[in-house]
Design a protein that fits this description.
heterodimer; A: 199 residues; Rna Polymerase Sigma Factor, Chain: A; Arc Repressor Mutant, subunit A; 2 domains; 10 helices; 65% helix; B: 87 residues; mainly alpha; 4 helices
Chain lengths: 199, 87
């Protein structure tokens, strides 16, 4: 059986009009970048660079994914570039948290010696609520730069440890400490700011 | 295979536990559930991994948060136009 020729299928270039990108995807990409980079002007730069890189690479766009997600993929790389640049300008203090790394609990069991207190509420019951994610984003924004960068790259972007260590110019143990502190602060912040009446 | 606390901590530090096979997930969950040493610590990491996974699947639909300013929008528009004119 001969396969029907899909001549009416739009070519990628027919489906993407860069002049409309700002209106169609600008706000989405900006919010995506702002959550990860925190600084509005850096987030704007990342979005602009994404669009310009998108125009340059339009020939490689095969239309298999939505333009929005294709651009988001480019933005992810730009975000990593901006974090690399920021860390180069303000290097991470890799001596901080050395006490945790030197502790017997860490060496023997890979955990901290201070017990982790149970959550005051069950966050999974709040996942359906937009207000919870608003609180989550606000709490993420309150983290120090290095903690936020570590959490974003490891947890949100799921990058491998060795790649993050190269981007942030740190050792795996430093990354572990930064993520540990980020989780603790996020937990405290969510427990303080999430109105359990809504839960 | 019996997992030690250190192995569980290492696996969880590497990434989302949901990427593991079902049997590996079962062993990991079992260890964390009964272990009096690493239960609190590693259960908390798993909770955060669950939370971030839920956030990533919701992030697209969230419509709160700031928008691009008029000035930034204008500037980016201009840069796009300039780039398109470049041969």
């Amino acid at each position: 059986m001969t396969r029907m020729k899909t001549t009416d299928q739009p070519t990628p270039k027919e489906t993407t009009h860069p002049e409309q990108w700002v209106d169609e995807y600008g706000d989405y990409l900006y919010r995506f970048a702002l959550l990860r980079l925190k600084d509005p002007s850096t987030a704007q730069d990342a979005v602009q660079e994404t669009f310009l890189a998108g125009i340059k690479g339009l020939d490689q766009f095969d239309g298999r994914v939505d333009v929005k997600y294709w651009l988001r993929g480019i933005l992810r790389n730009k975000i990593v570039d901006h974090i690399r640049k920021s860390v180069r300008e303000h290097p991470v203090d890799d001596t901080e948290g050395q006490d945790i790394v030197d502790s017997y609990s860490f060496k023997l069991f890979g955990v901290t010696d201070r017990p982790t207190k149970p959550w005051q509420f069950d966050p999974s019951r709040a996942y359906e609520k937009n207000a919870f994610w608003k609180a989550f984003e606000e709490c993420l924004g309150k983290l120090g730069d290095n903690m936020r960068q570590a959490f974003v790259l490891k947890m949100l972007e799921g990058m491998p440890t060795d790649e993050i260590c190269k981007v942030m110019n740190i050792q795996p143990n430093n990354l572990w400490v930064l993520n540990h502190r980020a989780r603790n602060q996020l937990k405290s912040c969510l427990e303080k700011n999430w109105d359990r009446e809504e839960d | 295979m019996i997992l030690t606390c250190k192995q569980v901590s290492k696996v969880l530090a590497e990434g989302d536990y949901k990427r593991l096979s079902r049997s590996q997930q079962f062993m990991l969950r079992f260890h964390v559930a009964i272990c009096f040493i690493c239960h609190g610590f590693n259960r908390n990491i798993m909770r955060f991994q669950d939370m971030v996974r839920a956030f990533r699947s919701t992030e697209d639909k969230l419509d709160f948060g700031p928008s691009l300013s008029k000035e930034a929008r204008q500037r980016i528009h201009e840069e796009i136009t300039k780039q398109q004119r470049t041969p």
